[in-house]
Specification:
It is a single chain. By secondary structure, the protein is an all-alpha fold. The protein folds into 2 domains: 63 residues, no CATH class; 192 residues, no CATH class. 74% of the residues lie in helices and 0% in strands. It has 13 helices and no strands. The radius of gyration is 30 Å and the shape is globular.
Amino acid sequence: MNQKMLDRNHQNEPIKQTMPIEQVEPTLSEQGLYLGKQRLEETKADGITRSALLKATDVKGRGATAVASVTAELSEPKKKSVLFSLAMLFSLSKIFLGNAVLGFAYAKWMVPHKVINGGVTSLALVLNKWLAIDIPYLTNGLTGLLLIVCLVFLGKESFFKSLVSSFSYLFFFTIFYQMKMDIGINLPIDVLLSCVFISFGYYCCISENSSTVGMDVIALILHKKNPKIPIAATIRNLNFFVLALGFFTYGVESIILGFIFSFGYSWLLAKLLVWHKLGKII
């Protein structure tokens, strides 16, 4: 009787079937093919060819790792930005806007009040006293050197955008500087307005992976090597260093204004970059 009960219980047990490996791997192949088709439909505008889709069918016999590999490979062309894509046009427009604001602030407030900010021009003034080389040659030489450094350490995209940024700044600064229009109010208010405008101009460039081909190039490189290094604070410290070097060149008043300005605009720039990282501003 016990034997019959055992046989009956055994018959009632659900039959467990294991799918052979030969049947599992085609399922992975189908998964890869589906992912490939889906990726192709999403990124046709980026120029993915049908050959990329065919790679997804070559998954049989390679397991789940192959599915992830094919998916990543299919995603790779999307990362390659087209030079004049919509995103690139938006980025360049933002860089143009930033340099227009920078050119306006420097031409109408900083230069008339002789406020030194510790940037490339300020460094050129210091080197001029030591090397007796004309300031335009020093400024252009430093700018060219920073562009090369940008290309080597920050990549082609950042170099291209920085090149656009450099030329657009020179264009806007020249236009605004030649305009016979005095908008100055008084020194404290003009310095405050300069802090707001220049921090916004720097933000437009840095948030789009560009530089103004100034001390921000060094700050961006250090931040790339170690993301814990804050960009705005590094720019401020570099400006302070240049100002300290030029203490006997600029005079006490210019140095004090330069320290106040550098601290003010770098503080606001830091806030803008944090808001951008949190997605509060574009």
